[in-house]
Design a protein that fits this description.
By secondary structure, the protein is α/β, with parallel strands linked by helices. It has 6 helices and 5 strands, in the order H-E-E-H-H-E-H-E-H-E-H. The longest helix has 19 residues, at 135-153. The termini are far apart. 38% of the residues are buried. The model has no long low-confidence stretch (mean pLDDT 86).
């Protein structure tokens, strides 16, 4: 297994997963979990295809990483996700003990990370959340997805 230290690499990897989600009609979000810069879990949105409202990219990545580690605690790990995590995913990241969250673009509807960063009562401290990594690519794929969806619904 190769080791990559570049945050941009892991977000690009997550973007490839988002593109896979897009191809199957899902909201294009991808997530990658690393430990010591090694891939231990990945996921893409599959809410529709799995008929599972919890099957967000982050949740799928957490499930895969936990299976890989054979442990529900993913201490010292990082998640790279193309879109800011929602409240459900953020809580799952806290409970799984993931230390760092790196995301590409904000979810302008919720901005949950900005709200929750004010509280540093958990393992994800204020300085452990990084954003705006490949923002344009991460936001463009979502913008285009929703434009096409609105166009097709008319």
């Amino acid at each position: 297994m190769k080791i990559y230290k570049n945050k941009g690499y892991w977000i690009q990897y997550a973007l490839k997963l988002a593109e896979q989600a897009l191809k199957i009609g899902e909201v294009p979000v991808g997530a990658v979990i690393t430990l010591n810069n090694k891939l231990i879990g990945e996921g893409k949105n599959c809410v529709i295809s799995n008929n599972d409202p919890t099957a967000h990219a982050e949740i799928m990545a957490i499930r895969n990483a936990a299976k890989f580690k054979k442990n529900y605690r993913l201490t010292n790990s990082s998640i790279y996700v193309t879109l800011e995590p929602c409240l459900m995913c953020y809580e799952a990241l806290i409970y799984s003990r993931i230390e760092k969250i790196i995301f590409g673009t904000y979810d302008n509807k919720s901005n949950i990370t900005k709200i929750l960063q004010r509280k540093s009562t958990n393992n994800i401290k204020k300085n452990k959340i990084k954003n705006k990594i490949l923002t344009k690519k991460c936001s463009d794929i979502l913008i285009n997805f929703f434009k096409n969806k609105r166009k097709n619904n008319k």
